[in-house]
Amino acid sequence: MQSTSRRHHVVVGSGIAGVCCAKELRRCCPEDAITLVSATDTCKHVQDVVRVTDHLERFKVAEAGVNELETLGIDVAKGFACGLDAKKKVLQLQGGQAIQYSKMCICTGGRPKKILEHPRILTVRDTDSVISLCNCLKTARRILLVGNGGIALDVASSLVHLKVTWVMKHGHIGDAFFDRDAAEFLFQCLRFGKRNLQTVEKFELAGAEDRTTPMQGRGESPAMPSKVAGQAVGPKWSRILETVHGVADDKKGPNLASFNLEIVREAEIADVLLQHNDPEAPEDGFPVTVQLTNGDTYGVDYIISATGIVPNADWISKEDLKKGRNGNLLVNRTMQTTAPDVYAAGDVVECDSSWSQDGTHWFQMRLWSQAKQMGTHAAQCMAGVGTPEALGFNFELFTHVTKFAGKKVVLLGLYNGQNLDESEEGDMVTYCRSGDPRTEGDAATFVRVLLYRGRMQGAVLIGDTDLEEVFENLILDRLDLSAFGPSLLDPRIELDAIFD
Predict the structure, then answer these.
(1) CB 56 within 8 A of CB 34
(2) pTM for the whole thing?
């Protein structure tokens, strides 16, 4: 039993949100006991943080042994959380271990959705799944990619040496992030970009040689983890895919573009026929046949399923903690769930209605940057140094920087009109400036801004625009920009000098 004078904080999960929460708790509560519960031997942590603007930062995600946290004064308990008694403040682990807590933060993240369980249907979540994916693709001739979020974009833009059929239910690529104009620009970048693959940053897979045996021929590979997965891989995980060549296919694929990527829009998988090793099957046959809702049929070696994630919260009953429509844990503005002294952060949560505020330029999106943000804020609230008012600064503006199709991508504010659905016609206007990747190559840029009643609400910046700081300030300052009109994006105008 814990001493009443020394509180015991428990963090469940060793991904970015959990590790950031545990480290911030240690900083804020130097006298308290802190335990991190991890289902794996590794953890994810943030390093090399670079401040791009006041609200925008980029960082690397690194993997380390979870026991290294003990050097910071954080105890580590290895095991799978399987139950919670919120009234008695007891966390139950598989194997019978029970952990009493004063306050607890659940950061168990999510796991990939999967069409069905089969070694030929692959997903990406943790380091082990990336290793398995790469080993499978070494023997592949063709693959089918399904999904249209960040993972799908990464895979499509990185598998430059394999024939890929990309199936999406939307009318343009990257629907989770972009509108049609930005998506079309990125598509042209995929077609005409001139990335130098010799400069691909090495992707470190700790212990890869010890964990995975390379596949032989085209036999079935070991099934990838599904129900239980480790922490999500870092933002640069897909770089290693650029070095995967696969196996040459002498049979010409149907309507494949010169860059080996065929995009099938507004279609979904209707049926999957899986053929096991059949000695009488023709040598050029494919082990997987996919039928789409548009009537097309494809033969492939593997399906990569990138259709999103489901929260790792099914070990918690709705009677203990209230959940959202997709099974995520509902949290208020101090990251508290509906049970006393139980907090949550990262991909496992859904922000409840208390987060909605008139005029805010922030919205929830399950990204690395928000996992770090939420984990840190949850720790501060658990320690008593964070308040709902702290959201006014920490969550004042949605910002995200990443790379797609080899291009720097910066997203600011309500860049796609998020939270502005009830606006009257004519209140919102967008201005766009787009380069031509066909003629400009990697120098091409794309800029789009959204104004609501003359005030900038958000922006999408693709390529090296150097506009992120001035646009961030224009969004937060709420200046009336109506007089500028489309000239707001005139490259000859030095906005930073005008609005300094």
Answers:
(1) no
(2) 0.85
Contacts (Cβ under 8 Å, ≥6 apart) of 54 = 472
Q: Which long-range contacts (CB under 8 A, 24 or more apart) does 168-172 make?
A: 168/263, 168/264, 168/265, 168/266, 168/267, 169/266, 169/267, 169/268, 170/265, 170/266, 171/265, 171/266, 172/265
Residues 462-500: tens digit of each pLDDT: 999 999 999 999 999 999 999 999 999 988 888 777 766
Kindly state the tokens that stand for 422.
């009830």
Q: Amino acid identity, residue 264?
A: V
Measuring CA to CA, which residue among 115, 93, 57, 159 is closest to residue 308? 115
Extract the tokens encoding 21. Answer: 């929460």
Residues 140-166: tens digit of each pLDDT: 889 999 999 888 888 888 887 788 999
Q: Compute the radius of gyration of the chain from its Cα atoms.
A: 24
Go through the chain and tell me how many residues it has. 500
Q: CB of 143 within 8 A of CB of 302?
A: yes
d(CA 349, CA 108): 9
